[in-house]
Amino acid sequence: MSTPPPRAPLDNADAIAAGSSAAALAAAVGGRVPHAPAPGGIELRLTGARAGYGAVEVLHGLDLVVPAGKVTALLGVNGAGKSTTLRVLAGLVPLRSGTLAWRGDVITKLSALDRARRGLLLVPDERAVFASLSVRDNLLVVAEATGNPNGITPALDAFPKLRDRLPQRAGSMSGGERRMLALARALLARPTVLMVDELSLGLSPKVAAELFEWLATIAAAGTTVILADQYTDAALAMADIAYVLHRGERSFVGDPAELANA
Ligand SMILES: Nc1ncnc2c1ncn2[C@@H]1O[C@H](COP(=O)(O)OP(=O)(O)OP(=O)(O)O)[C@@H](O)[C@H]1O
Question: What is the reported pLDDT for 110?
Answer without folding.
Answer: 95
